[in-house]
């Protein structure tokens, strides 16, 4: 593993602390949590997708404070979206917060109006012979003004859909992968698509230039997150480690846990969605061997804390960070959910 002195946009090591104060518990679903995403522009709201085939919209934090020392529990969402016939596996929110996309076992990408839960605006891929032929694991907005949706499937393809057009056919089909597509991220410029595959490859597509760059990983790729400046990529693999990669030259900037570390972290069979957190100074991930979320410092690679999200020991398969804003009193929030079927949301004490 190559060492580096490259700085990141994160805080210094001394300030990298894992927020551990539970501020809300969402117990609205009747099945495992597979997808979590915060609304854009401050993240007041949170969307959760479950194996119960529903998507729920809730507040990230209760809008009323309580004097009780027991954190509140949200039992009823603000809105339910229930058009899926199979498990919901991923959710993406448009930058204007007016629409969001979801995908799962239905083999189609659903586009929703946030305000209207009665039905979908569009369904991409269900009325064309050029749609996905297997479950869709991931979806992301791309292009100028979120004009494109990218979806990745077990059928080994990434498909791009035109949100503005009524054409049912995909704009483009990317078929370089030799196994299922597990995750997709779109760097800030909007014209690149980065896809992680079970074949152990990360492929970066520059759609405007018609070029693909391939990085070989030591295990099946299960998770991707990209830094705000688009220079670093967090890659989770089934060899039991996460790696922060330099997107310019493909070198590994840091590994989590560090090589030779005996820390009890396990990921060799499940799809665990990991993320950057706290101004990109931390990396967060669940682990297959317990119900905790672990945090590592981006600069040093050191383990800096655990939070027991599920005391029952059921795996936390999805973690998501929401950065704070000037309008919010909090620095930021993170949410974790998985097999327990609940979502816990944490902030700094």
From TrEMBL:
GO terms for biological process: mRNA splicing, via spliceosome. Keywords: Cytoplasm, Repeat, WD repeat. Pfam families: WD40 (PF00400). Transmembrane segments: none annotated. Residues 62-75 have a biased composition (Low complexity). WD repeats lie at residues 81-122, 129-171. The keyword Transmembrane does not apply. Belongs to the WD repeat MORG1 family. The lineage of its organism: Eukaryota, Fungi, Dikarya, Ascomycota, Pezizomycotina. GO terms for cellular component: catalytic step 2 spliceosome; cytoplasm. SUPFAM superfamilies: WD40 repeat-like (SSF50978). Residues 53-77 are annotated as: Disordered. InterPro entries: WD40/YVTN_repeat-like_dom_sf, WD40_PAC1, WD40_repeat_CS, WD40_repeat_dom_sf, WD40_rpt, WD_repeat_MORG1. This is Uncharacterized protein. It comes from the Eukaryota. It is found in: Cytoplasm.
């Amino acid at each position: 593993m190559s060492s580096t002195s490259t700085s990141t946009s994160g805080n210094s090591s001394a300030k990298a602390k894992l927020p551990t104060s539970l501020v809300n518990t969402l117990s609205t679903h009747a099945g495992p949590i597979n997808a979590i995403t915060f609304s854009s522009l401050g993240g007041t709201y949170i969307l959760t997708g479950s194996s119960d085939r529903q998507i729920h919209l809730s507040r990230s934090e209760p809008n009323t404070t309580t004097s009780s020392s027991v954190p509140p529990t949200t039992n009823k969402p603000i809105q339910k979206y229930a058009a899926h016939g199979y498990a919901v596996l991923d959710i993406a929110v448009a930058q204007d917060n007016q629409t969001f996309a979801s995908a799962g076992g239905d083999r189609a990408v659903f586009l929703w109006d946030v305000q209207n839960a009665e039905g979908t605006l569009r369904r991409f891929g269900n009325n064309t012979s050029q749609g996905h032929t297997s479950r869709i694991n991931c979806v992301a907005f791309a292009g100028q003004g979120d004009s494109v949706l990218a979806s990745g499937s077990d059928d080994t393809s990434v498909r791009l859909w035109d949100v503005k057009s009524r054409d049912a056919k995909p704009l483009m089909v990317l078929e370089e992968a030799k196994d299922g597509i597990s995750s997709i991220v779109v760097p800030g410029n909007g014209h690149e698509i980065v896809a992680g595959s079970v074949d152990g490859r990360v492929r970066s597509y520059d759609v405007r230039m018609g070029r693909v760059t391939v990085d070989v990983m030591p295990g099946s790729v299960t998770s991707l997150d990209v830094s705000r400046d688009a220079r670093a990529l967090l890659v989770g693999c089934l060899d039991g480690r996460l790696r922060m990669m330099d997107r310019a030259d493909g070198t590994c900037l840091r590994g989590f846990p560090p090589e030779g570390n005996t820390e009890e972290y396990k990921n060799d069979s499940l799809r665990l969605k990991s993320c950057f957190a706290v101004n990109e100074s931390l990396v967060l991930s669940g682990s297959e061997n317990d119900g905790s979320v672990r945090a590592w410092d981006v600069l040093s690679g050191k383990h800096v804390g655990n939070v027991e999200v599920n005391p029952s020991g059921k795996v936390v398969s999805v973690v998501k960070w929401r950065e704070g804003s000037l309008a919010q009193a909090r620095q930021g929030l993170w949410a974790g959910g998985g097999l327990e079927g609940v979502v816990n949301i944490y902030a700094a004490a």
